[in-house]
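Loading example: each entry is read as two labelled lines plus one structure line.
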Amino acid sequence: MRARVEIHLKKGVADPEGENVLKALKLLGFSSVGGVRSIKVFEIDVAERTTAKTRGAIVEMCRKLLANPVIHDYRIKVEGGRASTPRR
Amino acid sequence: MRARVEIHLKKGVADPEGENVLKALKLLGFSSVGGVRSIKVFEIDVAERTTAKTRGAIVEMCRKLLANPVIHDYRIKVEGGRASTPRR
């Protein structure tokens, strides 16, 4: 199955990438831009048959590698499944 | 309005980040993982009133800063609007 993990910064954590994109957009003349947030997404193919097993594997991947629990929240969506609530 | 831009690599373009995440996941024992693709997302607040104007501004931002037309496709979704077809 295919899953999609969205890794975004927790509220209150500085987002230097977003801030720099905002600065660059302003410098380019986009005066209507108010804010930019950067988010990282991984699309992962997993050889599991059920949505639950796929989600379980992805949660484990987030814990062990993809997300830093101090600064990141993540959201998992298994293809054909529903988005899970953000985990902390 | 708020818009979401997904910037992903075109088909056939190497994705070193995705490849390295795949390698790391395999090394950590996730043998069921078959492939990983990395995608970048920006959430952008724009002081425009209509979906069309917001989308127009975001397309211009992608052309001028966010996406590299040689290697990237992008997909814009304006909050409350529908996702546009990927642009090349």
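DSSP finds two helices and three strands in chain B.
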